[in-house]
Amino acid sequence: MKRFRCEEVVELATAYMDDALEESARGDLTAHLAGCGGCERYVGQLRATAGLLGRLRNPQRHAANGSAEAPPEALPEELPAEARERLLAAFRERRTADPRSPL
Amino acid sequence: MGIIAAGGLPPDDVVVAGLRSGDEELFARLLDEWSPGMLRVAGSYLSTRASAEEVVQETWLAVIAGIDGFEGRSSVKTWIYRILANTAKKRQARESRTIPWSSAFDGAPEHDGAPAADRPDRRFHGAGGPSPGAWREPPARWPTPEGEALAAETRDRLAAALAELPPRQRTVITLRDVEGCTSEEVCEILAISAANQRVLLHRARASVRGRLSDYFQVAARPS
Ligand SMILES: [Zn+2]
To answer: Are residues B82 and B124 in the same domain?
Structure first.
């Protein structure tokens, strides 16, 4: 059995979370986490980081109390309406004018 | 989990048949369901929103033109994201002639953001210390998780932390953690090895975690 050092645990945390470690290494790492509060917290925070990033996917909800908060620029959420219309037109033209399509 | 499970769309064979036969309503649903994620992924390559929008449009046009040639070796969504990644990469190469930072990491794909082996990590005791490789000081506790909606400030912090990552790390963490792709899907979309994917993801997550830690500690300090 290998005794991992904290430094190594921190480096392997993503492989551990992805279940990409060999079984013995996985067991040794689990044992380290059980006895090391610092590493346990680190792995928990890495997991929390991934979880918070996943919540960026949810559409931004603006305060319902009518505050005029501008939407953030950094995370575009929708295609502009004109672009959407253009793509729908392109689809219509291409997919219905295609001679191979059944009539 | 994986991106395939996206909200209420019919299975792939139905989607492919619908696209081929000109089902406009289905196409509109795909546009609305997938474009937001595609914009985020395109944005991980490109510095302006306008460029990301153009890449997404170009991708959809390629999908319209190429659906007859889709062979079903991956899911439709993975196929589309692959076209997206390649289109964004080309666009990035073109723009990097005027924006030097985005090409700064192209030269060392396997070592993107990895710490230099000879630089000791100050968070841990050195080789001469009482317990080499152990925490000098364990990570500080974070506040309890926020409720259902992410606070606007946390959102901004996350966006800022993503923005300062090296481009390849940013794309991988966007696909994995923001969009919820599996590691297999990311490898397929970006044509990279599982090991490379993991290294890039780990560096990216470690950086974002560090930024969040700084933020939470400042926020927790009594004023
Ligand atoms: Zn430890």
So the answer is: no
